[in-house]
Amino acid sequence: MIQKTNFSGILFTLAIAIVVFISTHFFSFLNSILLGLLFGIVLGNTVKIPLYFQPGIAFMGSKMLELSIVFLAFGINYTHMGKLGWESFIIIGFVVFSMLLITVYLAKKMNCPSSVGWLVGFGTAICGSSAIVALAPSINKNKEDVGVAMAVVNLYGTIGMLVLPLLLTAFSFSTLHSSLILGGTLHSVGNVVGAGYAMTSEIGEQSLAIKLARVALLSPGLIFFNYLTQRNSGKNWKQHLQLPWYLWSFMAITIIVSIFDFPKLVIDGASEIGKIILTFAMIAIGLRVSFAALLQSGKRGLVFGLLLFIIQLFLVFIGFLLFKN
């Protein structure tokens, strides 16, 4: 429920969003989601925002984040898993769920602050920013950690997109192995498309199919990861399935989209609405991130993210050894 006191903060966030959407035409290398986060962080740390704006900003950062998940679900289709050969799918499944286990273990061992470690690990394992957004509302810690995690994951995704094609070409990997490395490790779909098609069209197509199969593991990954992070909370197995409304909606939509053939216009339209709503949320989250907290959490987050990226590459190579092709 939107309370009357929230409107000033909501209108402030929407005003910034207008500037962000206009700015995407000048900063085409950044999407509105990341640009919104950056705008929010800069404004939040350079402009004194009135206290009575804060309830509305908090509302946008929390509720819009949840709502965006529902619309972004239209972009996930389980049929992509069936398009892979069984060996490739087993490798991807092995890598994703191993990474989730490793994330929980290392976040505790390395004392990665607050929920940053969990978010970075979940984003690294599955699909970057979208995975972080899907997990964030169910983690009862600082929502500002979403901004730190997204910054870390997008940084390494961009570096990987630029560096991995050069390394794969230098070491003469096969088309299948190159596709598995790119589709199985890079953080976002955009990273995979950029790296894959930069090599060959065949690698681009195969790596994208592998990446989309990895994205399709988001729903089971959410259930599994929520169990891993809350298994010591004293809940029984039924309570672990008592997920918030937006996650049930997310999973229901992904199943429906996978079964029924929706028009491309509907799928693209829903995904675009999800990105717009997510931009609102990222602006609001950015407004509440302090540079001091960003530096403190960001340092460990960067180290943690790099370590996980290296481990993920190593796991894909183990998959090669298990299933030589």
Q: Please, could you describe this protein's structure?
A:
There is one protein chain. The protein is mainly α and 325 residues long. It has one domain. The chain is built from 16 helices and no strands. The longest helix has 32 residues, at 291-322. The mean pLDDT is 83.
Short description:
The chain is mainly α.
List descriptors.
single chain, mainly alpha
Count up the helices: 16
Task: Indicate the multimeric state.
Answer: single chain
User: How do the helices and strands follow one another from N- to C-terminus?
Assistant: HHHHHHHHHHHHHHHH
Shape: globular
- Give the helix/strand class: mainly alpha
Residue share in helix: over 70%
Radius of gyration: 19 Å
**What is the terminal-to-terminal distance?**
55 Å
Give unreliable regions as ranges: none
Mean pLDDT: 83
Structure summary, number of beta strands: 0
Number of domains: 1
Per DSSP, what share of the residues sits in E-state strands of 2 or more residues? Answer: under 5%
Largest sheet: none
